[in-house]
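Case 526 in the screening queue. Each case pairs one protein sequence with one candidate compound; here the compound is guanosine-5',3'-tetraphosphate. For every case the pipeline is the same: read the inputs, emit a complex structure as tokens, and attach any notable structural observations.

Predict complex for case 526.
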Amino acid sequence: MDLTQEIKRRRTFAIISHPDAGKTTLTEKLLLFGGAIHVAGAVKSNKIKKGATSDFMEIERQRGISVATSVMGFEYKGIKINILDTPGHEDFAEDTYRTLTAVDSVIIVIDCAKGVETQTRKLMEVCRMRNTPVMVFINKLDRNGKDPFDLLDEIESELKINVRPLAFPIGMGPSFKGVYNLFENKLSLFFPEDRQTAQGEVVEVDLNDPKLDEIITEKDANNLRTDLELVEGVYPEFELDTYLSGEVAPVFFGSALNNFGVMELLDCFIRIAPHPGKSRTLQREIDPFEDKMTGFIFKIHANMDPNHRDRIAFLKICSGTFERNKPYLHVGSGKNIKFSSPNAFMADKKSIVDFAYPGDIIGLHDTGNFKIGDTLTEGEKLKFTGIPSFSPEMFRYIENADPLKFKQLSKGVDQLMDEGVAQLFTNKMNGRKIIGTVGALQFEVIQYRLEHEYGAKCKYEPVSIYKACWIESDNKEQLDDFRKRKFQNIALDKHGRKVFLADTSYALQLSQERFPDIKFHFTSEF
Ligand code: G4P
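Case 526 output:
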């Protein structure tokens, strides 16, 4: 198969949801269809159970699972599907944001009883920033939930995206009979007694065929006809272009646990979801069909074994063919690096690959060379964009708690920051180091990992910061004036860029008003 065919048959996507909506269950059912696993329960949920925030074994367990399930690849009907796993816990949201930079589309899972929840809303914002094509799966139809039209309205208003149902449910909860697939004009009947194994019986029946009344009763058939009339009246025809540009999300209904509606979703997904597309770099746009290999690191995972401090760097291939043992330029360091054992991920197994193509994710053995966002090429100096750090929301001073282990601490902190666990700022005035994170859990993760992996001890001290924003201005005078007045609140990030640490939202607002020529950025990429 040549490069063009390999690219066209690839679909790289992430499933996102609020915890408990059914992401793990849906992932598992997709893997079952692909024959990648054979029993239910093989995919472990990577969510940290409630109340386990100080249970470090739980954190380690979660890290172990998240290595195993970072990428789940499988073949389905000749299509190579790569599902990128995203952490369920909101404190790891930044990991999820970064994973979303490596996908070409997204499936959102929504619980029909709960509707749109906070985490989904936040993740959708990231999809919107990148115009990522989105499909929605409304799950748990075997339970009573909100009215389907209300759910569709809620998705439109809360997620700020137009929807187009491509399937519609008949009943819900105990009276759930199945879904009518508008994409293929087929009826899928739900038999609750076939729990977890059935894919439902699929009947090809025209909506106006009296046979429909016999199959699902006259009342349900009439309700379905009315519902579908409304669907056709309210929602514009499905158009591929509007889905691909991220304007309209096709919606499916089903029950992941019962394996119901999942195949319809998958069959439609492989037909309409995009193959790997173009990527942006500071220098130029990269076309996946270019001969030369390019790719970027979007995730770094430390070894679980404390005796081996090596790591796995996850490379998303953006163009060309990646070859084992071929030297590639690591743009950050200017070094040429060969990889003798790049890993591909198929379901829960990893194996060494000789070739990989755009859309594929490979795991590279790393002894501490890589940072998130690093580029590999065949010689061209490129820097991929769209992998920003987000302004953290929680801050603490970090101090050395064991004077004999200063070096270990500094190396440990450095490497954990490269992995993207948190962000480090150095206060310009007093030189103190500040850790900024998106969630409280990261502080414990850092402390625990510093001790167990680096033999270093740290302690935290409170610091009152509301937000860190990157600052820049063409007006040098104003910038200098601002830096003088706010010298206590100016810090440098890991790359030496200037950051304003605002004490309060009021202080930030005031600064924005008084220094109109200064731009205050909430992501590191501007
Ligand atoms: P998540 O990864 O999005 O956090 O959700 P997960 O798949 O773990 O599902 C959360 C809970 O919802 C699980 O139950 C799961 O069995 C259930 N679930 C998923 N899909 C459906 C569905 O279609 N119908 C119904 N009724 N339930 C569904 P749990 O009790 O938390 O876990 P478990 O003990 O069943 O594993």
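Case 526 observations:
- Residues 143 and 173 are 4 Å apart (CA to CA).
- The first strand starts at residue 10 and ends at 17.
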